[in-house]
Design goal:
2 copies of one chain form a homodimer. Chain A is an alpha/beta fold. Helix content of chain A is 34%, strand content 22%. Chain A has 2 domains: 167 residues, Stage V sporulation protein AD (Peroxisomal Thiolase, Chain A, domain 1, 3-Layer(aba) Sandwich), CATH 3.40.47.40; 154 residues, 3-Layer(aba) Sandwich (Peroxisomal Thiolase, Chain A, domain 1). In chain A, the strands form 3 sheets. A 6-stranded mixed sheet of chain A has the order 1-9-14-13-10-11, with helices on both faces. In chain A, strands 3-2-8-6-4-5 form a 6-stranded mixed sheet, with helices on both faces.
Chain lengths: 342, 342
Amino acid sequence: MRKRIGERTLLFRSEPRVRSAAAIVAKNEDNGAFQGTFDTVLEDDKFGEDSFEKAECKMFRTAALLACQKAGLDPDGIHAMLAGDLLNQLITANYAARDLGIPFLGLYGACSTMAESLLLGGVLSDGGYCSPVLCCASSHFSTAERQYRFPLEMGTTAPPTAQRTVTGAGALLLSTQDVPLPVFSHVALTAATIGRVVDLGITDMNNMGAAMAPACCDTILAHLDDTGSDIADYDLIVSGDLGTFGSEMLLNLAKKYDLELVGRYLDCGASIYLKEQGFSCGGSGAGCSAVVLAAELLERIERGDVNRMLFLATGALMSPTSGMQGESIPGIAHAVVLERRD
Amino acid sequence: MRKRIGERTLLFRSEPRVRSAAAIVAKNEDNGAFQGTFDTVLEDDKFGEDSFEKAECKMFRTAALLACQKAGLDPDGIHAMLAGDLLNQLITANYAARDLGIPFLGLYGACSTMAESLLLGGVLSDGGYCSPVLCCASSHFSTAERQYRFPLEMGTTAPPTAQRTVTGAGALLLSTQDVPLPVFSHVALTAATIGRVVDLGITDMNNMGAAMAPACCDTILAHLDDTGSDIADYDLIVSGDLGTFGSEMLLNLAKKYDLELVGRYLDCGASIYLKEQGFSCGGSGAGCSAVVLAAELLERIERGDVNRMLFLATGALMSPTSGMQGESIPGIAHAVVLERRD
């Protein structure tokens, strides 16, 4: 085995670069903590389409195309797209892949999708199989509510632990070769850790953070163990969408293993909205960590504010059908390491 | 680029081997053309569980475990599982991954899942990132009908173009190293071709074969073009579940490109049931090509009856939601090459 260094961690020795990224969100997201960093902000949540599902697909397609255009590439020059979303049968990613014509590998990891796509994109490009590749994820508040919870028309109020599904799509272009117009010159993908499905028996569909925090902790531990590294080796540990409640759970869980994350930790879900926006525990959805990574975090690495980041996207594998059959909600977290290189 | 030889085809130079496989089906499937080849046949479709969904999960888990056991490996020794199923949120694969504890990458490719998992499993093992890996797919007639069509209790009759979702789960163990008890010694995974989402505008949910045949033809053409090979270089071209109607469409489509598949072609869906079983156009579902490959086709290679096989699993990306919004049903087909090696 050439590159596997631990049970679950893969090293990317050729260090594929993130060459460009694009993020598109709705107004609520742009009114939050990362205002002004996004490429496009929707005027209305339907994006000129006649259904929220079609709007999400157009968002996805727009972000994917923009990531190509920014890098000076045509979609025809992309060798594979690895992507997913929260909707049944991945209708967002699938219809977008049809319209874009790029060879497509559909992934389902719920809100862990952005890291799963970067992990597999890293393997495909680092291994010399495909490059450039596009890694994308999206979610939409209105399509997710309809599918997972209640029709918006019911006006159901959110309980205190609830998180709001982010309306947004993020796309990253990963390549081992140069591209005509690189947006980033210093962002390298150097390793990844595959998640395990972890289930501590949470059954509350309005408390996804609690379902995901144990999986996130499990992957951090595996990553440190596999690589023989320490929390202090990372400037920033990012989790996807644990929200304020789930983040607190993660910090407490980590402490039990003598890991002090405070001071070097950011949760995309807990950070994306401002407190005064009143979205309970923050944001969630596959698009949440995707847009925060694409719009904000890559820039921090490019600028040199962050030199080494462990990016964990966390997924709650919530199924209305399984829930009704008494099953609990398992979580999963995949991780990738993004590092600054000169 | 070391291994990419065409726009969509990847070569696996280390030729990872399929070391073992397991297939589990229900009675209808065992009463068909491949009777007696399956490892386990369900006595009842609920497999002792209290829901069909839990039965499908148990089937999946059983097949995955059996593939490990046959090879003399413990699930703890498996470095990654790449798998999916037809159910929303991949509840079959996800809950099975939870129970097995194997690092897990969830895939959604509808009925193309078996080839997608072998493609990515090939990349992970050939690239030296993870080995051994488990590649699995499953489907269940009763869970699929409930989710995609009508509750069984309605007793809806199937139109002539309909296919029956196969109740079955298949698992293949892929490894670049030796295993303690190899079931197969001669089956190598040598290449793969990534599918594109192709849509010719089919909107009939009971005619999945027609939705998938164009994607299947597209991938065959890309594969031959990328590799500079000819149909005659393959003893057997296998499609997943086009069914009798879709297979005929594929043969006709292929002819337009001067490709004569007759005489070296098998569709798992069209072959799995006997005509007298009365299942219209044959079988379908992610489990269909998975169990036929695991139970029958690998043996043909091992025995030397087939030396080089192009295995295409075909997925119809059917969504009830998109269907109601007037969208057509796109298809996708991923391909892998399995070859006999001494």
